[in-house]
Each structure stands twice: as C-alpha cells, then as structure tokens.
Specification:
GO terms for molecular function: fatty acyl-CoA hydrolase activity. The protein is of the alpha+beta class. The chain has a single domain, classed as Hotdog Thioesterase (Thiol Ester Dehydrase, Chain A, Roll), CATH 3.10.129. About 25% of the residues lie in helices and about 35% in strands.
Length: about 140
C-alpha cells in the first residue's frame, strides 16, 4: 500500500482558546494530505479541473484520539482506502512527532463534470490515474 506523508507545522491561528487545534482544521489538513498524495503519484487536482472535472467531498469522518497544540509538528499520512467505478475513499492518520496517533479519518469523493455536476468515472476522464488508484487501493469496490 502506498502512503503519502506531509508534515504540518501547527499555526497559532489553527488553535482555539484552549490552545488546541480547532476541530475543523483537521479537515483542511486532510485536503493537504490528499493533495500531496495525488502530487506524489504524478497528478494534480488543478489538472483535473483544467480538463473540466471536479472531485467534491461526499462524506468525511474524523475520529479525534489526542489533542494537537500550537507549536507542534504533525505528519498527515494519506492513502487510497478504496476505489471503485465512481467513488474513491481516502484514509488518513494524523500523527504526533512521537508517533502517537492524534486522529484517523476517511473522506469519500466522486469525480463530476464541472458544467453539470454529473458523476463520471475517473477511468473515463483519466485512465492512467484510475489505473494507479486501482494498483494502490487497499480495497477495490
């Protein structure tokens, strides 16, 4: 299984009054991790959008295990959990410097035509990208 890693330095603006990273910022980190995974594989969201397609989130689930605070550095680990005809699920771990898990997450995405938002298979619009996901996904659905 291919796992991408992206280091994140926690900024003060990402924390709440308790000095803990505000929960919604984890979703931003997931996007950063997902973008890094795609880049590591040699593709880009920008390229997909240039071709007239988008990949919206249809579901996101974050499980918080331990808090992250200002000044810490975390690693976002991202992989393709499952890939099917229309839906891709990414898996994530956000990990403290000492290796303990701060959170786990998944996000589900579809590819849609930018003009009408109708779902389209990644295989149809980018066969090589689809083949790479088929190769590295934990589960093919």
């Amino acid at each position: 299984m291919f796992i991408s890693e992206k280091e994140i330095e926690v900024r003060y603006a990402e924390t709440d009054q308790m000095g803990v990273v505000y929960h919604a910022n984890y979703v931003i980190w997931l996007e950063i991790g997902r973008t890094q995974l795609i880049k590591d594989l040699g593709y880009s969201y920008a390229g997909l959008e240039k071709d007239g397609y988008l990949s919206p989130v249809t579901n996101v689930n974050v499980n918080y295990k331990s808090s992250v605070k200002y000044g810490e550095t975390v690693i976002v680990r991202t992989w393709v959990e499952s890939h099917g005809k229309l839906r891709t699920t990414y898996g994530y771990e956000i990990v403290h410097e000492d290796g303990t898990i701060a959170s786990t997450a998944t996000s589900e995405h579809v590819v849609v035509n930018k003009d009408n938002f109708r779902p389209v298979s990644l295989k149809k619009v980018h066969p090589a990208w689809d083949a790479k996901y088929m190769e590295i996904a934990k589960v093919i659905v």
